[in-house]
Each structure stands twice: as structure tokens, then as C-alpha cells.
Amino acid sequence: MTRQRSFATWMGPLERWNPRNGLTMGGWNARPLHELLRLATFWAIAIWQGGFVFYSGFVVKIGSWELNSDLQQGFITRRVTLELENLGWIALIIWALSLWGTHFSRQPLKITAAVLWCAILALHLGLHFQWHAVDHALDVTSRSLKDPQAFFVAHRIFVWSASLQWLLVVILSGVTLQAWQREKR
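Given the sequence above, the corresponding C-alpha cells read:
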């Protein structure tokens, strides 16, 4: 009995999160953790999307020139996209936690953020399966295409899906930053 009472006393009353003073539990302010989560969100998205933009915008072209082959560069890209996918999963989880803890000024903005995040997640999942469709058209041992037509179609779908995902990430980043700015005021 005493043990339960002391635990309840230690916990103190739980207060709702307030952007000015943060979540408090037993007098402990979680605001610094909230800010750390935002920083982690920023860097996770920056690393994931920065890697995507830099790789697709520069490395693919340079690799093709250096190897004198788009196909040989494609076998490198095949591996890199898996690493970018893993970075994406990490970023999406961190971003979800951050959005969950964000106080949106208006309900429509919160719904917009949730819909955008779900669309990005759905595209990320779709890209995972589309990667396998592209990979299935490749012969890894001979470093050639098994089915050039199937590869072309699967690759186009992958590229357009990844581009759409990038656009939605840019939009949701803006919505997220806007919500964070309004919270600060």
C-alpha cells in the first residue's frame, strides 16, 4: 500500500502538453526531448531525401559516364536504393512520432499532415515491392537484362513513384515546419 502511494505521489498529476511549457510528468519537463525529436526528424528527412536527390541527380550520371554503361551503373543503383529505403523507414518512423507530438493550429492542417504522411508511407511500401519487380528483370550473375521490356516498364514506375514520394515529402516538410513555427508563437 505504501509503495503504490509513493509511486502515485512521485508521478504527480499529469498535465496535457502545452507548447509553452511542454509535457510535464511529476514536475519533469519533457520539452527538451520534444525538441530533440524535432531535430532527429529534421536530420532523418535531410539524410534520406538528401541522399536520394544527390544520388539520383549526380551519382547516377557520373557513374554511367565513368563505367561507360547505364546498365552497369544500374547494378550499383540496385544496391544503393535498398540503403535509401532503410533510411526512409527510419525517417518515416521518427517523423510519425514527431507529428504525433505536434500541436496543429487547425484540424484541417492535422488531417492534411496525416494524409500526406500515409501517402508517403504507401509509396514507400510500393517502392519496396517495385524494387523487386525491377530486380526480377535483371540477371545479376551475368550483369545483363533478362527482359528489357519488363525492366523498362518496372523501372519507369519506380522512378515516377520515387519522384512523387519526393514531392510529397517536400510538401509535408513545409506543413510540418509551419506547424512547428506556429507552436513556437
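Helices lie at 2-11, 31-67, 70-100, 107-136, 148-184. Try to locate this feature in the C-alpha cell string yourself.
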